[in-house]
Amino acid sequence: MAHSLNASAERLRARQHSGILCEQGARTKALTRLDEAVQRAETELLDALRRDFRKPRFESYSTEIAFIRNEIRQTQRNLKRWMRPRRVATPLFLQPASSRVEYEPWGAVLIIAPWNYPFQLALAPVISALAAGNTVLLKPSELAPHTATVIESMVAAAFPDGEVETAVGGTEVAQELLRQQWDHIFFTGSTRVGKLVYKAAAEHLTPVVLELGGKSPCVVAADAELKTTARRVVWGKCVNAGQTCIAPDYLLVDNQIKDALCAALAAEITRAYGPAPLESDDFASIISDDHFRRLEGFLREGTREGHIFSGGRCDPATRRVEPTILRDISPQSPIMQEEIFGPILPVLGFDHIGEAEAIIARNPNPLALYYFSRDRKAASRFLKRVPSGGAAINDTVMQVGNAALPFGGRGSSGVGLYHGRWGFETFSHKKGVFSQSLLLDPPLRYAPYSARQLSIIRKVLG
Ligand code: NAD
Fold it and tell me: Of these four, 83, 261, 308, 434, which has the most CB atoms within 10 Å of its CB?
């Protein structure tokens, strides 16, 4: 295994240096081949996602396949403009030179993907990496093995060796890959493993992007529109059975509307998933027994402490967890100490917005921050006071659908950005190029230095 992985890394670097993805046309064609492979594999992919965690067909299509095809289209439409060197100003004392920023591919890049959107989160960074002219080694997650197999055969059919390759496997494969020298590493996954990736990258001083997780708070002000808020929060929490890095992790609600909002949330869950959500076809399963047991522990604790407002059941045979509202949770309770990553929603009340901010500050720099209110100014003020990777006002999760917005965390929720132009920039080295004219060569900077030269410099540069 180690031998074949080594060979891949070398071939990828050699292929990149050979200039196969140098021209815009070659990059656009590579993306077209990927798009065609996605279309050909659509049925297989939908089936694989269902087998991996019973992901509903609508969610598989919209959040995985359509998302990727849209990202390809956006990239192809804009690539020529993105690749164009950007002219920047040149100060008077450097004239008659000109200056520009050129976008240079890093080279051979390693992409390590998680299981929760196993297709989207593997392929979206590949699109940006190819657009920027890199060759790619992609390691899909072993926890979604059927999807990983489809990705492997799709990539093999769409790309010649050395352009995009896959390495399917678990931790050992990832560790072996990280021992090698890459020109860039893009990792999506947990904060714990993200730190290991950062350390491994430091060994070779390799630039990295870390797309990590954490607890994304959702604040609901007293003037929020209750029904729409409940609808958007329940959808954001239940899509993919809560296994979404930017799902609202917990709710902070003004005490004036807490009871009414809890009732509206429970009603929305029943409307969307019926009286028996564990049997709904529109609701995914939890990915593994380990994750299921972790969530089951939260439900047991919620039952023991009397916090369950609605839901609370689960089924180990299908690894399903009912959408559950937990009321009157304390910031000290276990469920408030780690990312939930499942359809369980703790609700905490506040009398003053400062209390909500203090609770968020216990897990600072969330990946996403949500604020529901009719007062846009209050929302903007709140977002200015609370740092986060990204944010949405009066919605959850949908911000990811706009490729013009940068996507990424800060602090413990990640380092670096992607999607659209931001992804192209991430996978490019920005090379500053200064081009001097040969027409003039003022002697001012050259030795031997005179007092007059110094006084001119003082006047010009201060
Ligand atoms: P994970 O960290 O367990 O695994 C991610 C990848 O790392 C997998 O491919 C895995 O094989 C590999 N890996 C595991 N152990 C490793 C090791 N010791 N060294 C190197 N690689 C190793 O994460 P996960 O469980 O697949 O995903 C869930 C987490 O990812 C959640 O925390 C979630 O918030 C986060 N996430 C973040 C984003 C984002 O865009 N910011 C998106 C999705 C998920």
Answer: 261
Domain hosting residue 255, numbered range: 217-401
Is the CB of 190 within 6 Å of ligand 1? yes
Closest CA relative to residue 129, chosen from 71, 66, 174? 71
Instruction: For residues 249 and 100, give the distance between their C-alpha atoms in angstroms, rounded to a whole number.
Output: 44
Look up 59 and say whether it is catalytic. no
Q: What's the CATH number where 113 sits?
A: 3.40.605.10
Does residue 415's CB lie within 6 angstroms of at least one atom of ligand 1? Answer: no
How many Å apart are CA 393 and CA 414, to the nearest integer?
Answer: 21
Mutate to test the pocket of ligand 1, among 245, 249, 399 (most ligand atoms within 8 A of CB): 245
The one catalytic residue among 218, 245, 262, 314: 245
Ligand 1, atom nearest to 339 Cα? 32
Centre of ligand 1 to C-alpha 243, Å, is: 12
* 211 is known as an active-site residue: yes
CA distance 241 to 270: 15
Q: Does the beta carbon of 114 lie inside 6 Å of ligand 1?
A: yes
- Total domains in the fold of the chain: 2
Q: Are residues 363 and 318 in the same domain?
A: yes
**Domain final residue, candidates 401, 419, 448:** 401
Cβ(241)–Cβ(390) below 8 Å: no
Q: Indicate whether 438 belongs to any domain.
A: no
Global confidence as pTM: 0.96
**What's the angle, vertex CA 199, arms to CA 197 and CA 204, rounded to 5?**
100
Q: Is residue 439 part of a domain?
A: no
pLDDT along the chain (462 residues), means of 10: 63 93 97 98 98 97 98 98 98 94 98 98 98 98 98 96 94 96 97 97 97 97 98 98 98 98 98 97 97 98 96 98 96 96 98 98 97 98 98 98 96 97 98 96 95 94 85
What is the token pair recorded at 451? 């007092």
Q: 231 and 206 in one domain? A: no
